[in-house]
Amino acid sequence: MNRWSPTEEELHAYVDGRLAQERHEAVRQWLREHPEQEARVGGWKRDAETLRAGWARDLEASVPLALQPHRLRAGVRRQRRARLGMAAGCLLALGVGGMAGWQWRDARLASEQLPMADAVSAYRLFAAAGEGDDADGVAPETMRNWLQAHFGAAGEVPDLRAQGFRLHAGRLLSTPEGAAAMLVYEDADGARIGLYLRPRTPRNVTGERRDGRLLAQYWAEGDTAFALVGPATQLRMREIAPLLRGG
Q1: Which residues of the chain have pLDDT under 50?
Q2: C-alpha–C-alpha distance, residues 229 and 185, integer Å
Q3: How far apart are the first and last CA of the chain?
Q4: Is domain 117-245 given the CATH code 3.30.200.100 in the classification?
Q5: Number of other residues whose CB lies within 10 A of the CB of residue 199
Q6: In the chain, where are the structural domains located?
Q7: H or E segment at 11?
Q8: What's the confidence (pLDDT) of residue 95?
Q9: Percent of the chain, pLDDT > 70?
Q10: Which of 13, 49, 221, 227 has the smallest CB count inside 10 Å?
Q11: Distance set, CA 237 to CA 33, 91, 154, 229, 244 (Å)
Q12: Is the CB of residue 172 less than 8 Å from the CB of residue 197?
């Protein structure tokens, strides 16, 4: 008699906490009976938690000191003790004139919506820092099947050997909107670039930006958003990104 086993999609839904309670318990019991799969799913959880933590650090670091949450909270406490109104508190925090409260709100929202901040974080965690060399990396065939299951036709693994890069490693990740992945490519000199895929949101537009020493080029096709991330000095990225976009 064939014994039940969860699908790859159910395993990722388990990691993301998207399963119904009964199904969640069934998958957890199955994992207990299959230690090797439990270790693999545990790696996915660690990846997702690390990515979220790195993303949060990047976002906080990108916010001006006066607007960082702990400083704002401290300012509010001081304002309350001094019986100053919220408008006056915003005025002091931003050093601007009228409508200070709305300006603070706009600045905060802008800092939280840096294009493809999670792609840059994923690159720093799994490519720039030398991650992806360990056993938690995903085999190319597994990555290909998983990408196609979650992203359909958009979930292809590009062959960049003609551009001097070979597929080095892959990571399966998670975002608040759903599954994501980072494909790490490496050239003969050890330079690395990363192709990031995630569900498209209204914030995902076409463009590029510098983040420290990194360059992120990003675009969206259908329901999928992409970003090519690597050192800003890696000039071949500007040739590869148009190829991936199809022109």
Answers
A1: 1, 58-63, 65-70, 72-73, 76-77, 82-112, 131-136
A2: 10
A3: 52
A4: yes
A5: 17
A6: 8-57, 64-112, 117-245
A7: helix 8-16
A8: 41
A9: 67
A10: 49
A11: 45, 43, 20, 8, 10
A12: no
